[in-house]
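Students often ask what a holo structure prediction actually looks like on paper. The answer is less mysterious than it sounds. You provide the chain, you provide the ligand, and the output is a string of discrete structure tokens encoding the 3D arrangement of the protein together with 2-acetamido-2-deoxy-beta-D-glucopyranose.
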Amino acid sequence: MGLLHTNLVMFFLLLCFEPLHTTAADSSLPSGAKALDATLQHYAHNALVKPKTGTIYNAQLPSNLNGIKVSALRLRSGSLRRKGYPNYNEFEIPKGIIERPYVERLVLVYQNLGNLDLSRKYYPLENYTYLAPILGLLAYNGSDLSTRNLPELDDVKAYGDPVLIKFRNVKPVPSGAVAKCVWFDLKGTSNFTNVTGEGNTCSTSQQGHFAIVVESPSAPSPAPAPAGGGGGGGKKSHKKVWIIVGSVLGGLALLVVLLLLVLWIQKYKEKKKMQQMERAAEVGEALNMTSIGDTMAPSATVTRTQPSLEHEYAP
Ligand SMILES: *[C@@H]1O[C@H](CO)[C@@H](O)[C@H](O)[C@H]1NC(C)=O
Ligand SMILES: *[C@@H]1O[C@H](CO)[C@@H](O)[C@H](O)[C@H]1NC(C)=O
Ligand SMILES: *[C@@H]1O[C@H](CO)[C@@H](O)[C@H](O)[C@H]1NC(C)=O
Ligand SMILES: *[C@@H]1O[C@H](CO)[C@@H](O)[C@H](O)[C@H]1NC(C)=O
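The corresponding structure tokens follow.
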């Protein structure tokens, strides 16, 4: 009973806290960088009501996306190629940008995650610390704004000079550390380049998400890796492993609880049956006794030679 009790408690704890934990995190913010991109694209698109070509429109975001800044800019493809767009917030877009396949108009969506916590959350980087929040520049097919979701363009490149990203409010580099630019491509793969300019400029020939980071001092991570091995998968695969381990353990716990429940029910049934049988036996015994008594009484009067009865009734 004690074991069953603790298992039941554990089971209900699992039931109650697991969903609470995940829904609390997921209901307010999109989960994952791709989902965030899609959400921000949606609000950027909403900002383009009868847009003027070449004008930056700032998107209105709901309160759960507080702190994030999103803009939309619609350009003719030819104009982007010939002139670029020298001042799209932190991005300096040179001439020579070409998309493949060709589209008549593009929408360039600008993102600024606004703070380092969100940057870490959506773009986790093992062993690195963010000095500036993630900035994003993503290109969409802007030929038809009446579609609900603008189609992404995945091949847009700077064939001449690179696009420059001039970060504002970069945190000071810790002494002894070297700042790096990090670039996440559309698949989320990261790559590092040197910071240029006055320690605040990164350059890129492609779209994606960008930030300035430094290597973290090698402090022991709070959760040590379950198995050794040379990097590669990084945080995502660790998370996966933990999710799998968690599910397996949870499943096992559930199984044990169910088993115990079944056993307990069986035991309970048996006990009940036993009790019923006992009761039946008691009633039956009583009946037997009286019937025996009835039949005994006359028989006793007949045969005096049997001493057993007298023995039985004696104290
Ligand atoms: C861009 O959108 C237009 C209008 O919907 C469509 O005709 C064209 O095929 C699209 N181009 C690409 C490369 O997706
Ligand atoms: C990552 O950057 C290095 C140079 O810093 C470059 O040689 C390499 O091709 C880049 N990788 C990808 C996938 O673009
Ligand atoms: C980046 O900086 C390091 C040291 O400051 C230097 O050795 C390296 O050549 C640089 N890489 C590029 C691609 O400029
Ligand atoms: C992070 O640093 C630790 C310890 O220096 C190292 O074992 C691990 O491979 C690093 N992770 C990545 C993704 O480089």
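The helical segments are 2-26, 33-47, 77-83, 116-122, 235-302, 308-313.
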